[in-house]
């Protein structure tokens, strides 16, 4: 029986030294490396998302509520006031290439094109239709919205201060004023206490027309929006801050809606996203067609999931929004919405306009060299040399906007967090460990990727050596080359693999402690979407922990495979060659 076992071991050792086994071992190593990289990537992406969730919730709790609004036609808010967020239009790309009659360079005649000028066209005297700079679009219905936050945040992390809540109806500590409906508490009416010297924050606000029923009785001199562009309505729009069921913002009003205070404000193509791209800014600059004079704006891609807690109070079409900002540009000074199109050569109203003889419009965009002119049949050139800067803005407004796109004015209240749950402080205490964990996971992903890429490269070299013989660009030849590759694979890579275990083990230990908090202690604490974020943390953190454990198992298998073969050779290697004069297949 012992001889049979020795014979089986000898056969196994002989197989372990064949080309087929060496190649099989390398293929397994490559597969394990790919699996390890994928698992590490999934773990980091999941953790990065959950850190963003908790940071967003804490930012809301840590932002002082809005207490007052004012409207201005100035270029900036008064001192001590905060501007409502703006929308960034990223400008217009450089456009077509306008070539004068007889443009030659390098012995060749060059003509205008809808594409950018090449070096030969430029040498021939052609001119590029220039770009327009980006604009921070900060006005709404031709007014700058300014807000003030003279109140306390729900939780100030810097001072570790939690704003008092109302546990007994109509009751607040000394030095605080009650903010809430009569007879309410935080639990049944979102009431809270505010410092007496600061007063209660707003819980909602609206933009209403005089025709709206709720407008009745509102003071007419309270800063209003005025639509001065001759639209079909052309009426005043007043911004109203509501602090009670039928009350509107005035300095003497201190009533409080049965709702949480307003904290976050936004302007965008959609409410801010829970997941997905931001909705506030254009993705890229407005672009020209490569075959005609059309331009296309690039608003942000749609949300994966918009945040339904944002309340929309007003909206404007993309065209209306652009119009009120473009007409504020210095190039459009003295031009109104009614005659704007007259300065745009691409519009029917401005088809005969010529910036070279006009006093308004901001001057010409394209100027050919003295004494040179366009061929009369060259529409690309003849339109470019006549177009004004203000007319170019009109072209973006007229050709680039999408009738289905609308900009929305929104706000979001303080995120709900129930009284009988862990405190704001308890949740905030998890942010730094989560951030540290994400950073460790990022380091793990980087080290893991670098290490496994090297492992796969070396494994491929081994396979090449076994199948093709000499590997190009690798020192030595034949057996020496093979031994060199095996030394790299067996020794140097062992160090890289061991380095991976440091952040990996740290991450496994850390994630377990944090996961238990979100899995067991925050159930039913927030509104639907805050709770979804907390539940996501409770689900994803254990998933990250399990993924890291899987990475550990895969890495241990990678580490143990060559070690097992080394031990196997040490124990049984001598018996393998007894009575056998033939050389192993990989030494032939």
Question: Which helices and strands appear, and what pairs or packs with what?
Answer:
Layout: H1 2-16, H2 19-61, E1 68-72, E2 82-83, E3 87-89, E4 97-98, E5 104-105, E6 108-109, H3 119-123, E7 127-128, E8 135-137, E9 139-140, E10 143-148, E11 155-156, E12 161-162, E13 176-179, H4 186-189, E14 192-195, E15 204-208, E16 224-226, E17 236-242, E18 262-268, E19 273-275, E20 287-288, E21 295-296, E22 305-306, E23 310-317, H5 318-326, H6 379-384, H7 389-400, E24 406-413, H8 424-428, H9 431-468, H10 478-520, H11 528-576
Antiparallel strand pairs: 1-10, 2-10, 3-8, 4-7, 5-6, 9-10, 11-12, 13-14, 15-17, 16-17, 18-24, 19-22, 20-21, 23-24
Helix pairs in contact: 1-11, 2-9, 2-11, 5-7, 9-10, 10-11
Give a quick precis of the structure.
With 588 residues, this protein is an alpha+beta fold.
Kindly describe this structure.
This protein has 588 residues and is of the alpha+beta class. It contains 11 helices and 24 strands. Residues 217-256 and 575-588 have low confidence and may be disordered. The strands form 10 sheets. Strands 1, 2, 9 and 10 form a 4-stranded antiparallel beta sheet that branches.
């Amino acid at each position: 029986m012992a001889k049979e076992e020795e014979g089986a071991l000898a056969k196994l050792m002989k197989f372990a030294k064949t080309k087929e086994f060496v190649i099989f071992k390398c293929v397994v190593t490559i597969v394990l490396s790919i699996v390890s990289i994928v698992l590490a990537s999934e773990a980091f992406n999941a953790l990065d998302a959950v850190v963003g969730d908790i940071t967003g919730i804490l930012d809301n709790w840590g932002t002082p509520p809005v207490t007052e609004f004012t409207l201005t036609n100035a270029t900036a808010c008064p001192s001590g006031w905060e501007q409502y967020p703006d929308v960034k239009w990223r400008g217009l790309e450089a456009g077509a290439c306008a070539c004068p009659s007889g443009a030659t360079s390098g012995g060749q005649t060059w003509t205008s094109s809808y594409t950018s000028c090449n070096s030969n066209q430029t040498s021939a005297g052609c001119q590029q239709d220039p770009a327009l700079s980006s604009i921070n679009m900060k006005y709404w219905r031709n007014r700058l919205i300014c807000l003030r936050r003279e109140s306390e945040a729900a939780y100030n992390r810097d001072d570790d201060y939690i704003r008092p809540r109302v546990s007994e109806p109509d009751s607040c500590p000394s030095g605080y004023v009650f903010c809430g409906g009569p007879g309410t508490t935080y639990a049944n009416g979102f009431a809270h206490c505010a410092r007496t010297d600061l007063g209660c924050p707003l819980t909602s606000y609206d933009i209403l027309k005089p025709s709206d029923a709720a407008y009745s009785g509102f003071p007419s001199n309270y800063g209003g929006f005025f639509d001065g562009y001759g639209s079909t309505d052309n009426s005043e729009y007043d911004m109203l801050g509501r602090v009670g069921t039928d009350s509107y913002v005035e300095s003497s009003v201190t009533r409080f809606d049965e709702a949480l205070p307003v904290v976050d404000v936004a302007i965008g193509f959609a409410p801010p996203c829970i997941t997905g791209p931001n909705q506030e800014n254009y993705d890229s600059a407005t672009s020209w067609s490569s075959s005609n004079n059309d331009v296309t704006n690039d608003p942000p891609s749609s949300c994966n999931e918009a945040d339904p807690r944002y309340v929309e109070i007003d909206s404007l079409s993309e065209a209306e929004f652009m119009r009120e900002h473009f007409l504020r540009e210095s190039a459009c000074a003295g031009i109104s919405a009614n005659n704007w199109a007259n300065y745009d050569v691409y519009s029917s109203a401005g088809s005969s306009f010529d910036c070279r003889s006009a006093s308004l419009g901001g001057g010409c965009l394209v100027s050919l060299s003295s004494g040179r002119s366009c061929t009369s049949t060259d529409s690309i050139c003849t339109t470019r040399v006549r177009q004004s800067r203000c007319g170019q803005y009109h072209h973006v407004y007229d050709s680039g906007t999408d009738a289905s796109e609308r900009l929305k004015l929104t706000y979001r209240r303080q995120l709900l967090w129930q009284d009988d749950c862990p405190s704001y402080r308890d949740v905030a205490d998890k942010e730094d460990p989560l951030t540290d964990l994400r950073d460790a996971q990022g380091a793990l992903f980087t080290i893991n990727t670098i290490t496994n890429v090297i492992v796969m490269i070396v494994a491929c070299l081994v396979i090449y050596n076994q199948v093709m013989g000499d590997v190009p660009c690798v020192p030595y030849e034949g057996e020496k080359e093979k031994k060199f590759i095996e030394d790299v694979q067996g020794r140097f890579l062992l160090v890289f693999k061991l380095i991976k275990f440091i952040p990996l083990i740290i991450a496994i230990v850390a994630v377990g402690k944090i996961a238990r908090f979100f899995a067991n202690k925050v159930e039913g604490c927030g509104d639907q979407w805050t709770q979804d974020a907390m539940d996501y943390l409770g689900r994803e953190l254990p998933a990250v922990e399990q993924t890291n454990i899987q990475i550990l198992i895969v890495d241990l298998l990678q580490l143990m495979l060559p070690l097992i073969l080394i031990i196997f050779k040490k124990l049984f290697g001598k018996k393998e060659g007894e009575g056998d004069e033939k050389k192993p297949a990989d030494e032939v």
